[in-house]
Amino acid sequence: MVDKILIVEDLRKYYPIRRSLSEILMFKRGRYVRAVDGVSFYVNDGEVYCIVGESGCGKTTTGRLVTKLIEPTGGVIRYKPSSALARINNEFVVGGYVDYRRLPKKYVKLLRREVQIIFQDPYGSLDPRQTIYSILEEPLVIHGIGNDRKEREELIFKVLEDVKLSPPEEFINRYPHMLSGGQRQRVNIARALILGPKLVVADEPVSMLDVSVRAEILQLMMDLKISRGLTYVFITHDLAVANYICDRVAVMYLGKIVEEADMLKLVNEPLHPYTKALISAVPEPNPSNRFKIREVPIVGEVPSAAAVPPGCRFHPRCPYVMDVCRREEPPIKDVGGNHLVACWLY
Ligand SMILES: Nc1ncnc2c1ncn2[C@@H]1O[C@H](COP(=O)(O)OP(=O)(O)OP(=O)(O)O)[C@@H](O)[C@H]1O
Ligand code: SF4
Ligand SMILES: [Mg+2]
Predict the structure, then answer these.
(1) Mutate-to-test residue for ligand 1 from 17, 59, 71, 204, highest number of ligand atoms within 8 A of CB
(2) 58 Cβ closer than 6 Å to some ligand 1 atom
(3) N or C, which end of the chain is more exposed by having fewer CB within 10 Å?
(4) What is the pLDDT of residues 295-315, one digit of tens each?
(5) Given 3-state DSSP classes, what are the helix, strand and coil percentages for the chain, each rounded to the nearest 5?
């Protein structure tokens, strides 16, 4: 049986909205942006777990919570460590899992070695004043990896070779502006990999790249997954990209997972009206016609995460809305074969 490397239960992240003076004077209660609003999922060791959804549905927030860059409002995140963290016999490792809530600050660094993130923006996420060498050396120095410059150089050269920036000598003294978008994203990937992580959250890693280099970067990520034994949480708004790389996929809408299934099952037998609408919006990606194009009329824009509709949060836009949908939130349930859906139709 495959181990679960990550378990997330009822994860929530709410951001308080500043009240206006009149709201304060009228004793109105504070409101919140419910960026992530009760999300549960697990990721198997070695798989590519995808999170898809439109802008603002909470994908990045989920990724940042999983990498412990931000703290949750509620819920549980458990990670199965495999190196130094696993050897620490302490109360924060329960049943072989690190419980993020219990992890003392002094051990967060060890978690960072194992759980890394690749950011969306290859232009903004690299310091323009640092050379590629110093961008890659920095995490090694912070984490005390490599006894001397020579050892660190070996690691830097190895990771540059791995991301196909070869020969490394040609790249180490360059600055980010001297690289193409695709090359910069390779540096971003190298930076995420240099500490030897097991779990990598990739937040829209190809969405800002030219279409011509997207497939190359995705292929590189798949090669690295095998050669370095990685597990990915892959975040994208693009179902065609998800279809290319993912094993299982979760569809998020306004801070919640509304459907989850194996990738093939989801594109061939989508159940949730929102998923059907997303698939109908994907242009036919190739001649084999993987996506069956369906016409699902979906009205309006995604509501604000500060004003989540009552009942089913998709109901104002759903062509199949029923009375119960306006009153009660549908629980997510398994309709068979690990296909989960949150909709009163099922
Ligand atoms: N630091 C913050 N303070 C207040 N609201 C925030 C903050 N970060 C995110 N949000 C809000 O939380 C919601 C989810 O944001 P998030 O960035 O996670 O969405 P996303 O799915 O990654 O969107 P995109 O596809 O545009 O990247 C949005 O409504 C966003 O405005
Ligand atoms: S619960 Fe109702 S409103 Fe929500 S997606 Fe299902 S049918 Fe549509
Ligand atoms: Mg995002």
Answers:
(1) 59
(2) yes
(3) N
(4) 566 777 788 888 889 999 999
(5) 35, 20, 45
